Task: structure prediction
Amino acid sequence: MKTIITFLTLLTFSFSFSQNDSINKLEEIVLKGNFSPSLNSGYSIAIISDSILNSEYQSLGSLLQNQVNLYFKQNGNGMVSSISLRGTSASQTGVYWNGIAVNSSLNGQTDFNTLTANSFDEVEIRKGGGSVLLGSGAIGGAINLRDKIIFQNKKEGNIQIGYGSYQSISAQLKGLYSSNKLLAKISFGASRSDNDYPYLNTDLINENGEYKNYNISGVLAYKINNKNQINLYTSVIDNDRNISNTLTAESNSKLLNFNSRFLLDWKNLGDRYNSSLKLAYLYEKFTYFFDKDLPNNSKGKSENLIAKYDFTYFLNNNIFFNSGIEYKNSKGNGSSIPSVDQNDFTSYFLFHHQPISKLNYNLSFRKGISTDYSIPFIYAIDGKYNLSNKFVIRANYATNYRLPTFNDLYWQPGGNSDLKSEKSNSTEIGFEYTHQLLRFNITTFYIKSKDLIQWQPVTNTLWQPKNIQEVTNYGIELSAYAQKKIKNHLLGFKIQYDYTISQDEELYKQLIYVPYHKANSILNYQYNKWNFTYNLQYTGEVFITTSNTQTLNAYWLSNITFNRSVLKNKLKLSLIINNLFDENYQSVAFRPMPNRNFILNINLKI
Result:
């Protein structure tokens, strides 16, 4: 480990003081860091732009499920929502905020119903093992929530108000000021709902389902000169929700979540290099009330201090090196967790080469040390080859890991301080075809994981996590997009399909809550200032027992949106109808999702 750190340090300083003659910098690396296409040549990265994010006030999970065909497991509408990417668990999908990992230190997951989609300018989705560049947890893939910074003379404001079924109300106020040197952006958002929808084909309703969500985010950026820029990002999320009844049991419980995040980023750009120094503070806290009318509760909180330095040096137009070091101090405590203090240090190095115009590839590795567990040495290789102007082949192979969480290590009773890191090997190959009217993509993937952490019963009342499970994930992903404009008519169509096997190697059974089949299609028609979108989703049946003897039925969902722009496009009126055909479906067993419902939305630019 000392050898690696010494090598990276000497490499960084030697590059800093070497040649300064001008070459063409790769601008995308300057802007996007570890999610840059050049650093991920053999991977597929999908980007959701601000025009889609700002179309309506909705949770990030709902938007990703509609737009990118990702699978989410929801404990009822507005309740905890966790992702499964390529059949991996929620803690094996990395979630990042402007390049900083924000998965919970307590359980390793991110609740996508606490995040609001239009709080960000861009969402980047990277499928495939990414632990070398991104760190712990990015086994199935990663999602980056990004605030774009563009210095230009611009002032704008936006007010968005929504009203819908079940007394659902949302509002957001956003403002932006930008000059050639200064940018300031702020957003205030709030939503609430009685959430008392009927459970179809029963006499029950979703009692105790009320929720409230508040969020504030801000960006302040200053361009010191042509080579130096400093950015400050902030985010505060306050979520208050009751825990809904199920089909079989009443509930009077309640969950409070609070998250605050601060990030300071200094960028330094040279003729042959660029660097980024990030300092971040992340705070999370939850309080669970077994009965919201009584004071008895369970609590937990964590604090993370992160220092991350990233350096890229361009040897010439065809070769560059990228290296980074990261230090993380994590503290946690709660009703079932003692006060703990953990320190992790990791470093990585990447070599990028474009030997010919049609081929480029990356070689990379990462190693780290921790006060609480062993961080494995991992490596990756990925590349892309342009067979023609229209046809591209890409491939990658990577080793990955996920570190145990505070709950895994220290939960009392049951935590296991002897846990090892989860490890995996992943590979994929993809083909892309691009035409003037059509884009087509097909990808096959394979993931082999071992030492997966699984909680198992030790006695009738005690459960404990152990490194026992081995899982194999493999499948195929298809997507196609076509668009055609005829005079004032614009017609677009997108279809996506995923087939996923996620098999427990001990039981030879499909993992619970991983559908074999997941599909999504979007039809969009625009005429002058009118816009119509039809979204059709299919989720195949999932097993709800490890023996694969019980299932949840497959279901189809249809959502439609009508938009009309007026007042020189300053005002947009929208009508959204979800679950158009009143499908009776469940994402988690015994927790029905909403029937047909509507949302009226007003979006005003000021």
Notes: The longest strand covers residues 463-486.
